[in-house]
UniProtKB/TrEMBL annotation:
Family membership noted in the UniProt record: Belongs to the 5'-nucleotidase family.
Compartments, record wording: Secreted, Cell wall
Biased composition (Low complexity): 613-625
Membrane topology: Peptidoglycan-anchor
Residues of the 5'-Nucleotidase C-terminal domain: 369-534
Keyword check for Ribonucleoprotein: no
Domain Gram-positive cocci surface proteins LPxTG, first and last residues per copy: 628-662
Annotated TM spans: 638-658
Record region (Disordered): 368-387, 584-628
Gene3D superfamilies listed in its UniProt record: 3.60.21.10, 5'-Nucleotidase, C-terminal domain (3.90.780.10)
Stated name of the protein: 5'-nucleotidase C-terminal domain-containing protein
Keyword Coiled coil: no
Amino acid sequence: MWKKGFKIIFTSLLVFQLTISSVFAVEPSQNQQEESLGDYINFQMLSINDFHGNLETKSQLEGKEVGGAAYLATQLNKQQNDFEEQSTKVGRKFHTLRLHAGDTVGASPSLSSLLQDEPTMEAINKMGFKLGVLGNHSFDEGIPEFKRLLYATSVHPNVAKYTEGLNYEYHGIDDDFSYLAANVVDKSSGQPIFDPYIVQDIEGVKVGFIGIVTTETPKSAMPKYTEPYQFLDEAKTINEYSEKLKEKGVKAIVVVAHEGAATIKSVTTGVMADVATKIDDEVDIIFAAHSHEYANGVVDGKLIIQNYNYGQAFGDVRTQLDPMTDDFVKGSIKAERILNTRNVTPDPEIQAIVDEAKQVTEKASKQVIGQAASGDPIGKRKPEDGENELGNLVIDAQRIMMSDADFAITNSGGIREALIPETNEKGEHNLTWKAAYAVQPFNNYIQLIELTGQEIKDGLNQQWQSPDEIIFLQISGFNYSYVDGSKATDCHLVYCVKDVFLEDGKTKMAMSKTYKVAMNEFLADGGDGFTAFANNKVLKNGSTDTDIFVAYIERLAAEGKKVDPKLESRAIIIEPINSKDSIEKDKDKTEDETEIEKETTDKIDKNDSEGKQGQNSNGNSDDNSAIGHKLPKTATNIYNYLMFSALLVAVGVSILVYRNKRV
């Protein structure tokens, strides 16, 4: 009897001891952890996006003065030095890669764009960036010109004009600077126009990078420059090349995408957030861009980061690579957004590039072309939320300077900056060539085209073709009224045009009549999705939008006028005659039916309220309250084992006592 009892107790104690051992085995000591992590490789990725040639642009972000290429270089070096010191301190190998997620150039200030963005590309190259992707602005002047910029295959006429007699040289990017674009293929050959991916050896571990360009590019770039190419679905393309990388034995995969994402209140959304849920889980990190927002969050186990724009901030992503698994160490990926503050010493090499560009472009940029009525900035960048003072000024210039034009229409996205006067010691609010150029930097040619009244109205309705992206046009020579689609019974868009009038605001535009319209070639080719304007007849070509805008301000100055545009109600929203609200009110309902509905609603509301209160009191309906109170799964199992072992011991002791009593 005693033997059987001791046997039970011995078995129970053995199970208990094994369980205790497993508990301590779950968490190794700090020394054991450090020893096991000793072979890991520290990997840092420093990233920017949407720099847009802002070599010395200064702005305010989070109450701090930020911006400027020379300051960016210093800040990048500072972060890399910190990373290297930390890695050396723990005795690990380390590697830093600098990359950008597109639109480093394009739509740039005159300091860069007058020289075809060569100063910016030189600065980016000198800063040590080694990987980049195409952006939609890579197509602004066509891919051949973009490749000329990258590889310095020839001298552009504009560069030759501004640098004549100067010791100016440009050599393009280094041979080890890779540009990627997996989802842009040549229609004739079906092949990507740039490398779709690259594999880099990071201290013995293969890391794959896939480059992606926004599929919106055909809408935002000149159609004639995007027509030769097909822009493939982002998620499908990433999955295709993820498979190719895995076939090569690559397990650590990064996507560098010129496509948007944003993190607001710890929730990350946007195109790349949606893409993250559709792509291979071997992808661990996504660099986003294009929307000029801030993102730093995890979606479907994948880190997504974006760092505003114009060099105001940059990303510092730090992680570890495991040579044993050839993959990122799980849980090691950390990302931080660093402000590019100007409280550091600017890098002298990069500052020299900026100073040279200023010397070359200074004569043109400082030329005073007119005066403003006040020193306040006029308008804003991309006024796509409706009529804007600057929009009126820009589009009036195109209608007036293009003789014979009845009307003029432009896309708000072509207005890239507010018109900013410079007030001198005399109190004069001077407008310089540089300020005007910043407003209209694309140098798109203005055409005089023929459109019917119906085509104009159809084009106006295309402002609201996408419920997620409202794009208001800037107009001159006519005006129109529109209604809210949620209220009008005959409108299935966000808004719909009601009536279009001539400039007097009384005479309706004839839908069948043909009118002469001044319009930039981007919009006239159907850019930004305005296909209604593409079916036109070109009557003549004019100067560029840049030259026309400058010439118009000079004309006002010659007439003794100061620039002082006003809002003129060129587009007004009105209440629909037969609204959805009025139809609802006209429905036949008896007083009894109305009262029954009210009582039913009150009961439902009361029940819902009581039910929710009950759930909250139990802690079941509030996701935030539930998180943190659930025991980890592994811990729960361990506690179960401990309880089971203790129970066995208790049973053994009970049996022993019971049998002892019987004896």
